[in-house]
Design goal:
Layout: H1 3-47, E1 73-79, E2 84-90, E3 95-101, E4 110-116, E5 130-138, E6 141-146, E7 152-160, E8 163-168, E9 180-188, E10 191-197, E11 202-208, E12 218-224, E13 234-239
């Protein structure tokens, strides 16, 4: 085979190779286009789905959730030395729970609770409020004040040199009937005082010492009735 024939055959081979590459490239391009279109179709299907609706978290109901005005709930738990807790609740059917725990006279934990009607609903002036205070240690004190009708305060102190002051009503004539105050002190050298104004209120102070005979405990109760349905008060004091 002469040189010219060899060159012609070589040229034909090159042309055929280029055609194959061109055909393969078109196939690859078309394949990529088809795959991209399929991906878009799938993406469109995903985005076209109806968004999932997540139900909102239901807030935990408090023991006073049925109240129309107020209905607040407070729970405080303090462990340590020198803790202070102050709670102010306005309106009706509020609840406050406070617990403080310590070990010795250096604790000096303090609680101040105020539950009243105020500007929210002055005609009711605080109604169906509840306060529960527990202090364990020594040198602790709490003061709880409630204004209005049918309120309740319960206080428990365990230890030495603790002090409790409960006030229901006010010195001036005010709606403050059917209130209940209970103070329980377990230890010695403790002091408890309950003041109640208006009528049909009840107070109970118990001072005891489960470990030994209680000594140095003092209690004071002051109840004043006004003319409105003054059926009298009930006061109970017990020391042992």
């Amino acid at each position: 085979m002469n040189l010219g024939s060899q060159m012609i055959i070589a040229c034909k081979a090159i042309i055929i190779a280029h055609k194959c590459v061109y055909i393969n490239s078109k196939y690859l391009i078309m394949k990529r286009v088809i795959m991209s279109a399929a991906a878009l179709a799938i993406g469109g299907f995903v985005f076209a789905q109806t968004p999932q609706t997540i139900a909102p978290i239901v807030q935990q109901s408090s023991p006073t959730a049925a109240a129309t005005v107020g209905g607040n709930y407070s729970d405080i738990d303090q462990k340590g030395i020198g803790s202070d807790a102050k709670v102010q609740q306005q309106g009706t059917a509020n609840a406050s729970f406070i617990e403080q725990t310590g070990t010795d006279v250096a604790n000096r934990n303090s609680v101040d609770v105020l539950q009243w009607g105020g500007n929210v609903q002055p005609s009711i002036s605080g109604h169906l409020n509840y306060s529960d205070i527990k202090q364990n240690g020594a040198g602790n004190d709490f003061m709880a004040t409630q204004q209005g009708d049918e309120n309740e305060i319960s206080g428990l102190q365990i230890g030495l040199n603790n002090a409790a002051l409960v006030q229901q009503g006010a010195n001036t004539p005010q709606q403050a009937e059917n209130n209940l105050a209970k103070v329980d002190q377990d230890g010695k050298d403790n002091y408890a005082e309950v003041q109640q104004r208006y009528d049909d209120n009840e107070a109970s102070i118990l001072q005891r010492n489960d470990a030994a005979a209680g000594v140095g405990n003092r209690s004071y109760q002051d109840q004043v009735s006004n003319p409105n349905q003054s059926a009298g008060q009930v006061a109970i004091g017990e020391q042992w």
